[in-house]
Every structure is written in structure tokens, then in C-alpha cells.
Amino acid sequence: MTVRAVTDHAVLTEALAHPGVRKELRHWRAWSDGEIPMDWPLVTWVAPDNMLTADGDRHRRLRALVSQAFTPRRVEALRPRVEAITAELLDGITAAETETVDLKEALALPLPNTVISELFGVAPKHRGTLHRLMHTIFDARTTPEEAGRVHGELQSFLAGLAEAKAQDPGDDLTSALLAARAEGEERLSQSELVWTLILMIGAGYETTMNLIGNSVHALLTHPDQLELVRSGRASWADVVEETLRWDASIQYMPLRYTSEEVTLGGVTVPAGEALLMGFGPAGRDPKQHGDDAEGFDLTREQRGHLAFSRGPHFCMGAGLARLEGVTALKMLFDRFPDLSLAGEAVREPSIVASGWSVLPVRVS
């Protein structure tokens, strides 16, 4: 089995748009030939039945069912609720009357978790379970056996959510997907429904959680850049974009496959090969971002990062992630202008994502 990593920005851009580079597992020769064991660590990333692993008409059908929830107008309509949730969480930090808090647990995790849970109608009492299951999938320490068990538990959990919404529909996306499931050509199978929920809920908060945490850590370890924002010479939106480039929430995304012989960056890749998309390394490619690409610089001329991918699989939640990131950062530093690190932050072990398992900060 050979998996080729694509880390060059230009080559990655080319691969994301190439009609011969596909998402459907059937194009991977090693999989079709039975070379990939079911206990391979990345099986749960390459085998789900959702839009992330679909191509063509099927991908467009699945994407159309949820894309209307993430239009610029609808995302902007969420701004007051995002601000209210952020204020509640910051109030909780203040009320705790403690000098040091884990910012991941206090803000970076619960903000996007609450937003996406409300969008899909997940009750507050179930959100802790949702996070535990989703987070286990991203954790590099998770064994293949545990990943399979957790995926089964997650599918059961979300099938239960769908069943509850079928009995008592609400003003949420799960209810909307159930309604769409019964409408003609847009019909969703049970498997597609559950896997769409896994994708949208998981992608809707885990990546944004990392964006917020990575942004805060970058600013607190680069005080000169934080001063640029405080002086008005840079914006919170600049912070979000530079963080997405410099420390992308998704570093490597498994997998895409060559459905035919393709040439990428002058290299010929046979049909049936697997490609690992290196979004994180591409963000620090000096050929795209300059000789100082390894540095965190809010004054950098942004030349187009790939943190949200590109092409048909561009992240439809990008606008919401940016809204949550900007809102959280602005309100956090307004409330706690002397925010600083309080001890060593601990990186989350993951082969896919980049984030912090612990992010201790001093708020007084």
C-alpha cells in the first residue's frame, strides 16, 4: 500500500480541482484488491457514507440538502446567538473567580459545540456525549478497535436523534433533513442521513474549536502581533485568516484517489493511487506564502490558504467558523485584556487535526 502526501500549495490546488482525483473509495486499487485490513487506523476516515466521500451527482445531492443552512445571510442571522453564547461562557469564567482556566474547556470547545448542537437540535444533556464520541475519532491514541466501537456508538446516538426528531420535528437541520428524506429525488437513505449528521456536527465544532484555541495560543506567544490588533493596525479577521494559514485546524485529510493516470506538479501518478491532502504543510509553503511562511504575521499579504479546501468539497461551514472565531477572539480579549498563558499548553495527539488538549490561561 502506498499513500502519497501532497504538501505543495500549487500541487494541492491542482489536485483538488483535477477531474481524475476523486473521493469515492472504489477508485483505490489497494482497497478494491483487499489489501487494506479493516483494523487499519484510517478506515473510519475513508469508509463513511456521506458527502465527504462522494463524487459527482451524489455529492451535489447530499451537499444541496444542507448547504442552504450556511448561506451568508443565514450565517449572519446567527451572529446575535453566537455573541450571546460567547458572553455566557465569558460570564462563567468571571464568575468562577479563579485566576487560571483551561480556555479550551471554558470557551473554545463549548462555543462551537453549542452553536452546532442548536443548529441540529441536540439537547444540552447530550452534548457532552457528542463531544466524547466525536473527539475520540480525532484522537491519534484511539485504536482501530476503539474507533470502530465509537463509530457504532455515534451512529446509534445520531440515529436516536433522528428518530426523536421524526416523532417531534423542530426548527433544526435534523428535522429539515428528515423532511428532505421523503421528497422525490432528494431522498436520503438511513445510512446517508446518519453519516451526514456525523460529518456536519463533527466538522461543525471540532475544527472551529481548534481554530479558536490555535488563534489564542498564536497571539499569546506572539505579543507583538497581539499589539497590532489592540492598536487597530490589524483586525480579528486578520488573526483568523493567518491562523488558518499558519496552523490549520485540519492538517492532513484522508484520502483522495486517482481514478485515472494523472500528472500533478509534473509527476505522473498511476490510476488507483491514494493521496493524502496536506492542508497544514501547504499553509507554510514558501513558494506560495513567502520566505517567512513559517512565521505568524498579521501584516502578511494573504495569498489564499487552503484551510477550508477548494473546489466541490470546499467547506460549506467556512463562514460560520469565521464568524465564531472573530466573535470569540474579540469578546475574549475585550473582557480579559491582560490574558496570558499560565503554564505549558498541551498539543492534541492527532494525525488529522491540529489543536490543544489543554490551553491554560491567566485571566486576571
Question: Can you characterise this structure?
Answer:
This protein has one domain (3-362): Orthogonal Bundle (Cytochrome p450), CATH 1.10.630. Helices cover 52% and strands 10% of the residues. The chain is built from 17 helices and eleven strands. It has helices at 9-17, 29-32, 43-46, 56-67, 72-77, 79-95, 103-108, 110-120, 127-138, 144-167, 173-181, 190-220, 223-230, 236-246, 279-283, 286-289, 318-335; strands spanning 3-6, 21-22, 100-102, 252-258, 262-264, 267-269, 274-278, 340-341, 346-347, 356-358, 360-362. The longest helix is centred in the middle third of the chain and has 31 residues, at 190-220. It is globular, with a radius of gyration of 21 Å. The protein starts with a strand and ends with a strand.
Write the layout of secondary structure elements.
Blueprint: E1 3-6, H1 9-17, E2 21-22, H2 29-32, H3 43-46, H4 56-67, H5 72-77, H6 79-95, E3 100-102, H7 103-108, H8 110-120, H9 127-138, H10 144-167, H11 173-181, H12 190-220, H13 223-230, H14 236-246, E4 252-258, E5 262-264, E6 267-269, E7 274-278, H15 279-283, H16 286-289, H17 318-335, E8 340-341, E9 346-347, E10 356-358, E11 360-362
Parallel strand pairs: 1-7
Antiparallel strand pairs: 2-4, 3-11, 4-7, 5-6, 8-11, 9-10
